[in-house]
Amino acid sequence: MAVLDPDVRAAVKASLARLQEAAPGRSVEVRIPPYAAVQAVPGLTHRRGTPSAVVETDADTWLALADGSLLWADAVAAGRVHASGERSDLSPYLPLGG
Fold it and tell me: Does domain 6-93 have CATH number 3.90.1150.150?
């Protein structure tokens, strides 16, 4: 089992918390494995099973999106972000302040 970098984990969790503040709701599940997953974005609330909208990426990509050093459209075009479902475009919320 790989050892997770505690600094990366802290940065991912803090940035996901900022996303939840910027886009309160539960219509999109944002997954940054193996560090964390949250639900955010206004709209229909996801309750159980596979959500209708999912965003998944690695920690390095997520942190680059969060700090603005990578644009959402560029990350999606490069296949670094997998986004499916309604409301899965997080570009209105990125980069994150804080």
Answer: no
